[in-house]
């Protein structure tokens, strides 16, 4: 079978098609005339590097933005979407890469936002709540419909986003990195839901940087590179190597932990740390936990959502208060220090939620990158432009941010490139201990390798790294030591030669079949 | 997270990438063009409008709002609002007047007449204290800025009324034999024919401008106004910045109070009523976003001059006070309208 789009799509096979679609933002050409088919009742997966144009294409296909040139064919007929609600009324809905929920509203109200179920006397809250419960059951998630979204963990918010898209009951569902904050189990559940949808004739577009995971669900693969389509193929003809080769032009793997040097003295030592939950429900999210990381050592924490990894890191960084225990940096107690003082003494955190905790959306790319290092380029009372620009240039190169330059608006970057800015900002402070909370969320395989290389290089110079992830294969290719966290405790510890199954079992996760 | 991410600006590359974009230029320089338009229109309507001496007189009126607007800009950049500045202006004027009348110390049986420099200093300190109260309420007690400063607005006004019993201090000139003359210097003197108030405004605007664009504090301010959580995690002392900002706003109000009561050689407890709204208007016309993180001192100054030159112009051509109010209102609404076009909230973005 040939997957290359035809000039006139076969309407039996193709439900929605893009022909010669181009999109430019000023001088930036995000899409340069692409052809793309969404196969009826099947899963079409779109692969590509950060900034390749994936999200842009999906926004064009769901009416969020209008293409500069080119046409869109729905069931073989040309259409032009005026807005996303127009596209929705034609049966197309989208799960955005960045969450678009109202944080102060409840799960139920978010799911039905703008599509409230009405009775003659107002909104039928009971019915909305019942449907929300059904959706949560389908997604096997224990989330109360009446919880405000801001109280949910990032992964749970992503589930709500998915539930909202499912509740529309569209015939074409576009998913732009729906699983970036989900655990392996939740991804399994989502895939079950996707299979169920396709069996009922719903067509799916799926985007993910978890390539292996995406391969298990895809029927057709398409690769986008720098705004051009570079390859189309059905599932039967592709493998991991094919994707990577078409995405970045070469094949490579993430390597293995840096070796051939001795670790130094303990850089970060956590003793009997206890942290209570933020809502004040009175249970310990981190429970009497002790952990030492030596200079030069890379430690991965693996765990399910809610295992307490984020809380552990935020407490050590100084964002959350600790109930008991000690945190020492190079032998000095830091519990009483402010976040700024901890950064100053070389301890920093790359937070999990880039929109909420990582980026200042009103500032430029450069200002975001230099934000945590202002003191480094302040001379007397004024900042030095020259030194700042130097720092920004270095960071952009170090973490390979794809951007017009330091003056570009942060919102003009692709999701993965925004993530790189958050990582780069913290690396620019030249820490001696860095904690990264799910830093690979949304970055492509090349960038991930680059970040790993950077961490390995700095580790050789004595940087201690604490790295949390939900992807076991990441642990295995970067960590000297793997720690599994479960309900606030360390439930197991492995060396770099552990197997995937051992690690997952220790986290309390059922090993995926 | 639309609440957080929607404020992101559309790319600027359109401006540079596809040559000259007139619409954008007009939009971004709107306060400037509005000011030019106002000057041209009133110069045509009245032969008295276009003269250096009239501009200087109008500028010394603008100065009062200008001081308040500078403080307000800092607060708005931080994502807050300060409704108390008008009352702080009144209170500071009254306290300055009270100090100039002489402070009776009953226990010692003497009346102290502090010299003018001490009066000025004490008044500025008072402004900073009022601001600190706002700042602490907002940063540490988590009172919403609108409510905290609304409360302080009433308290400050009430204290000013209590201190004077509702009356006005009229004799601010001081007496040579008491060694406290010179208070009217602020309001009446000129250097190279430029009123002192205008000079102070220029100096203040330039220093605050430098602070915003070149100091680390300025960067902290923009960052914590744009996204306080992210700023905090990047090591910005968010709470200290917040308190500092309200203190600066209080000091700006105190300066305005001093200059105004010097211009009038009297200090009344109701001085500055509703001036906070004019200050907010100036900041908004100057293109700052009320959601925080965006705005410049240049814009705010232009905004203050637009309002000042417009209302003085209306007075000069003899339009009734009621119509002045209508015009000012219309200009504000227009400015906010243009703001929302400039920072147009995209419904969704990656
Ligand atoms: N509003 C915008 N203004 C300017 N440039 C933009 C804008 N939105 C996207 N771009 C640019 O378009 C290109 C494609 O971005 P897009 O978000 O589609 O990438 P992506 O393939 O989804 O990447 P990622 O994997 O990181 O999510 C990028 O170079 C990006 O900088
Ligand atoms: Mg994307």
Treating each run of at least 4 consecutive H or I residues as one helix, how many helices of chain B? Answer: 16
- Tell me what the CATH architecture of chain B is: Orthogonal Bundle
Rg over alpha carbons of chain B: 21 Å
> How much helix, percentage-wise, in residues of chain B?
55-70%
Pfam families (chain A): ABC_tran
Domain ABC transporter (chain A): 16-251, 268-512
EC number (chain A): 3.6.3.17
GO molecular function (chain A): ATP binding; ATP hydrolysis activity
Describe the structure.
Chain B: Keywords: Cell inner membrane, Cell membrane, Membrane, Transmembrane, Transmembrane helix, Transport. Chain B: It is found in: Cell membrane. Chain B: InterPro entries: ABC_transp_permease. Chain B: One of its GO terms (molecular function) is transmembrane transporter activity. Chain B: It comes from Donghicola eburneus. The complex is a heterodimer of chains A (513) and B (350). Chain A has 513 residues and is an alpha/beta fold. Chain A folds into four domains: 171 residues, P-loop containing nucleotide triphosphate hydrolases (Rossmann fold, 3-Layer(aba) Sandwich); 67 residues, no CATH class; 176 residues, Rossmann fold; 66 residues, no CATH class. In chain A, 32% of the residues lie in helices and 27% in strands. In chain A, the strands form six sheets. A six-stranded mixed beta sheet of chain A has the order 6-9-10-3-11-12, sandwiched between helices. Chain A has a six-stranded mixed beta sheet with strand order 18-21-22-15-23-24, with helices on both faces. The longest helix of chain A is centred in the middle third of the chain and has 16 residues. Chain A is globular. The two termini of chain A are 29 Å apart. The mean pLDDT of chain A is 90. Chain B has 350 residues and is mostly helical. Chain B has a single domain, classed as ABC transporter involved in vitamin B12 uptake, BtuC (Orthogonal Bundle). Chain B contains 16 helices and four strands. In chain B, the strands form two sheets. Chain B has a two-stranded antiparallel ribbon with strand order 1-2. In chain B, strands 3-4 form a two-stranded antiparallel ribbon. In chain B, helix 5 packs parallel to helix 10, helix 6 packs antiparallel against helix 7 and helix 15 runs antiparallel to helix 16. The radius of gyration of chain B is 21 Å and the shape is globular. At the A-B interface, helix 10, helix 11 and strand 20 of A face helix 1, helix 2, helix 11 and helix 12 of B. The site of magnesium ion has 6 residues of chain A, from helix 1.
């Amino acid at each position: 079978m040939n997957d290359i789009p035809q000039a006139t799509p076969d309407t039996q096979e193709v439900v929605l098609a893009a022909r010669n679609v181009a999109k430019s933002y000023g001088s930036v050409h995000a899409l340069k005339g692409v052809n793309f088919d969404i196969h009826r009742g099947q899963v079409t997966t779109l692969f590509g590097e950060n900034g390749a144009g994936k999200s842009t294409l999906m926004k064009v296909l769901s009416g969020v933005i209008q293409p500069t040139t080119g046409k869109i064919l729905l069931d073989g007929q040309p259409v032009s979407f005026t807005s996303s609600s127009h596209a929705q009324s034609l049966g197309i809905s989208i799960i955005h890469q960045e969450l678009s929920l109202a944080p102060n509203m409840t799960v139920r109200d978010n799911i039905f936002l703008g599509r409230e179920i009405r009775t003659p006397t107002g909104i039928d809250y009971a019915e909305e709540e019942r449907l929300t419960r059904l959706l949560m059951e389908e997604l096997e998630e224990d989330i109360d419909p009446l919880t405000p979204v801001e109280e949910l963990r990032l992964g749970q918010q992503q589930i709500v986003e998915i539930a909202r898209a499912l509740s529309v009951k569209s015939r074409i569902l576009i998913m732009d990195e729906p699983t970036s904050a989900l655990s392996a189990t939740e991804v399994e559940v989502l895939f079950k839901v996707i299979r169920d949808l396709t069996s009922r004739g719903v067509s799916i577009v799926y985007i993910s940087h978890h390539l292996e995971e995406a391969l298990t669900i895809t029927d057709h693969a398409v690769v986008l590179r720098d705004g051009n389509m570079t390859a189309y193929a059905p599932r039967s003809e592709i493998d991991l190597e094919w994707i990577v080769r078409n995405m970045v032009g070469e094949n490579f793997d993430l390597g293995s932990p840096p070796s051939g040097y001795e670790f130094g003295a303990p850089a970060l030592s956590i003793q009997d740390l206890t942290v209570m939950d933020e809502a004040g429900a009175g249970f310990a999210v981190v429970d009497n936990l002790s952990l030492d990381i030596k200079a030069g050592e890379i430690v991965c924490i693996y765990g399910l959502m809610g295992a307490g990894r984020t809380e552990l890191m935020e407490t050590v960084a100084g964002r959350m208060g600790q109930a008991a225990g000690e945190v020492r940096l190079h032998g000095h107690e830091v519990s009483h220090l402010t976040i700024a003082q901890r950064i100053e003494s070389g301890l920093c955190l790359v937070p999990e939620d880039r929109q909420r905790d990582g980026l200042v959306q009103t500032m430029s790319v450069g200002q975001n990158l230099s934000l945590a290092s202002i003191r480094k380029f302040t001379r007397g009372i004024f900042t030095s432009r020259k030194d700042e620009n130097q720092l920004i240039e270095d960071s952009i190169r170090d973490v390979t941010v794809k951007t017009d330059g330091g003056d570009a608006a942060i919102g003009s970057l692709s999701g993965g490139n925004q993530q790189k800015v958050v990582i780069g900002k913290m690396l620019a402070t030249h820490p001696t201990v860095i904690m990264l909370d799910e830093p690979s969320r949304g970055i492509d395989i090349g960038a991930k390798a680059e970040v790993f290389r950077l961490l390995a290089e700095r580790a050789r110079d004595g940087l201690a790294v604490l790295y949390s992830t939900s992807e076991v294969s990441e642990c295995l290719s970067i960590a000297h030591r793997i720690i599994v966290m479960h309900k606030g405790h360390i439930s197991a510890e492995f060396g770099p030669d552990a197997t995937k199954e051992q690690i997952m079992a220790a986290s309390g996760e059922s090993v995926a079949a | 997270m639309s609440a957080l991410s929607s404020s992101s600006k559309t790319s600027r590359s359109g401006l540079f990438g596809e040559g000259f974009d007139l619409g954008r230029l007009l939009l971004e320089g709107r306060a400037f063009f509005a000011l030019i338009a106002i000057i041209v229109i009133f110069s045509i309507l009245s032969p008295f409008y276009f003269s250096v001496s009239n501009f200087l007189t109008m500028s010394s009126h603008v100065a009062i709002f200008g001081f308040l607007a500078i403080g307000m800009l800092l607060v708005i950049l931080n994502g807050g609002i300060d409704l108390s500045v008008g009352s702080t202006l009144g209170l500071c004027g009254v306290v300055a007047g009270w100090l100039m009348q002489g402070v009776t110390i009953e226990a010692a049986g003497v009346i102290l007449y502090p010299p003018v420099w001490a009066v000025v200093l004490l008044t500025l300190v008072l402004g900073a204290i009022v601001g600190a109260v706002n700042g602490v309420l907002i940063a540490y007690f988590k009172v919403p800025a609108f409510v905290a400063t609304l409360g302080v607005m009433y308290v400050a006004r009430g204290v000013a009324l209590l201190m004077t019993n509702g009356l006005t201090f009229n004799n601010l000139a001081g007496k040579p034999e008491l060694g406290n003359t010179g208070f009217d210097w602020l309001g009446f003197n000129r250097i190279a024919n430029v009123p002192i108030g205008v000079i102070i405004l220029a100096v203040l605007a330039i220093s605050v401008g430098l602070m915003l664009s070149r100091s680390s504090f300025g960067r902290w301010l923009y960052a914590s106004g744009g996204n306080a959580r992210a700023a905090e995690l990047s090591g910005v002392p968010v709470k200290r910045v917040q308190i500092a900002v309200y203190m600066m706003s209080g000091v700006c109000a105190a300066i305005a109070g001093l200059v105004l009561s010097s211009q009038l050689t009297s200090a009344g407890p109701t001085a500055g009523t509703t001036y906070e709204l004019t200050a907010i208007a100036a900041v908004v016309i100057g293109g700052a976003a009320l959601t925080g993180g965006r705005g410049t001192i240049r814009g705010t100054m232009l905004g203050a001059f637009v309002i000042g030159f417009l209302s003085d112009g209306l007075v000069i051509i003899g339009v009734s006070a009621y119509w002045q109010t209508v015009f000012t209102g219309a200009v504000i609404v227009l400015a906010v309208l243009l703001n929302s076009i400039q920072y147009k909230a995209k419904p969704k973005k990656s």
